[in-house]
Amino acid sequence: MITLKINGQTVQIEKGATILAAAEKSGIRIPTLCYLKKVSPTGACRICVVDVQGAEKPMASCHTPAEEGMEVTTESPRLSKIRKQVIELLLVNHPLDCPVCDAAGECELQNICYEHDVTTQPFVAEDVNADAITGWPLIEQVPNRCVMCEKCVKVCHEVVGADALCVNLKGDRAFIDKDLTKCEFCGNCVQVCPTGTMISKPFKFQARGWELSKVASTCTSCGSQCQIDLHVKNNRLFRVTSQDGVTINDGNLCFNGFFGSDYVHSSLRLTAPLLKSGNTQRSVDWDEALSAAATALQGGKVAAIAGNRLTNEEAFLFQHLFRQGLGCNDLDSEARFGLQRAYDLLQHHFGMQGGTAGLGRIAAAAAVLVIGADPTAEAPAVDWLSQKACRKHDGKMVVVNARTIKLSQYANVPMTCRPGSEGIVAGAIARLILDQGLADAGWLGANVANLDELRTALAAVDIDQAAAACGVSRALLEEAADLLGRAPSVAIVFGGDIYRESQFAGTLGAVLNLALVSGALQGEAGGLYPIGAGANSQGLLKMGVASDLLPGGQPAPTKGRDLQEILSAIESGEVRTLFVAGANPLAFPESRRWQKALEKLETLIVQDCLASDFTDMASIVLPGVTFVEKSGSVTSSAHRISPLAAAIATCGDARPDLQILGDLLARVAPSALLSAAQLSAEVERCSALPAPVGTLRAAAMPLAEPLPSPVLLAGKDLYYAAATNSASAASHEVVPGGYIALNPVDAAGLGVKAGEKVKVTSSLGALEGPAQLAATVPAGLCFVPYNCADVNVQAILPFGSNAETVAISKA
Hints:
about 800 residues; alpha/beta; Ubiquitin-like (UB roll); Alpha-Beta Plaits; Rossmann fold; 5 domains; seven-stranded mixed beta sheet; 27 helices
């Protein structure tokens, strides 16, 4: 610690901190414009200048280190004059368009002019500003409003890591430009802009900032669940923002957080209950719809499926309706295809109901392994935290993926492996750590119950054979092992490519064993993080929405039918009524089989907020609401419980999902009704983390050979990360629809150009879509995103697999 004086007040601060930080700590305000705490200081505006005793010229407090014995003055007539003149210079050729500027009322430049009594423009210069840039998707740039603070450039480079923004040209002709091929359209540049330079096109001219009510809530586009503010007026959502410094995500949002909520006002919204008569659906009142649904549910031969858009309260009541209300245990969720696989193995081997608690531990880790995951698409907050660990905190990063992902450029050891060989890589790294004596033998001996089995399993791994099988060099495996083995703390991030693949048990088993030997489960930093699951998948499992889990996430003594068994039962006629809330089986694996099976049902009841081909099949449609129109709680992949707030009224005659489920329960089993207090208590009980287990168990890791080429790999695209993106105009503006990504060499061999149709054929059928040429996709692989109805990859993928050997041809 060092001691200095600011305005005569004694202040103590850590060595290396700036004068601005010292002043802030002591409650002394220094005006700023270009300063942004979460990025490195730029020192561009000079408004934060202060006088330091002994220094001839004023010093920029944002990047001048505080020193022992320093005496600082932050306010004086001289400093006021300097600041005023600096602001006047910033206003040279600044347009007086505040009445029509979207930043009006929220503009930092406007505020600082007012504060410093800047009422005129005494300086004149030739106007050499670039023209407004209106051709970018979603974001507009108005250079003549720019003060060149570079906040947008720095947040893009240092926080998001996209490096899309840059300063083009020099001097008074300089302006902020963008490489559209790198932009992630996260909107953070719009959020940090102190003027109206960076504009959200969807928000432009829609509302004045001071007219909007701001409601705190939680983003539900992925399992990270960032904290957000919903800006609403007249029952309409106008924009979404987040606050720096006070939110779990430090104000950062991804594309879906900032732009992706426009589906709330989509023309596809369901606004009234529907009943099917013959082949036609007609609008009815709620009493008629609920009565029909209750009658069908009480008729027996019932099964139920839930989606991850339900809140914790809705999820608990969903399973309560079927288990206690109808005596039916044939219920499951879409987590069956993904997160539940990881959940079950983590619970069995480590006593963990999902990943490590707290995403912040990733940023604190000395090393981060990202394996079988694309955090940029699956959980952007994990992307930023991984970068923070390795770019800001000088940690190390290893990336293992079948494709080149964004984080590969920041990895100390980037490895592009063959699809499905991630477990082979994990097993080889684990063996090398053990062989090199880098594992904590004392900790393993004290905490791993079957340590001999672990040693035997790893001893069976042949490093050279593993390297050949996964397509990476032995040298890279050794480098990764040395880096992870020597790191005092390790975070392991794994995604859908691990737990969605057909050989997931062996692959995930190898990852769990690597977590043991690398020390990922030791200490207060790092951990084990499954990502890529839908919004409230963790909450669904904790509330017991699974055929083999009870509320609280514990294994059920008697198992009901899971998703695959429900499908078979529909086909055989053993299930005649199906209730689906917030999910779409036409987007499940083997979706064509699902479609044929659904046509056999006597009654299909669908509770959802958006119309789709699936709701068109329904006998009864119960219109639910979006996360903006309901209250409740959700559980993040890292076990954080966050609230949702009803910020606007429901759309049309739609009802909150909790109310719909409660009304159904009142009709089928009134004795099973729960009060609000009882439901809240149940959710709290079920959300508790399990007590740490005494010992851990290593996992079996039977590993299969990678699939022969060519291989179809399905995964998440940032702009279609959730089913609701299908109704998002913003998503379609950036990426118009589904696609089939190919390596340019493979495309040339097929005679296919970008945008031309490609045909992919698996054992289940064929799929056609426009070609996207991507060097990030290795030769012999094609990548198709989920959640694109126009190119539905699930139609040609079998249960339990995200990859399949296929034939690829020009359509």
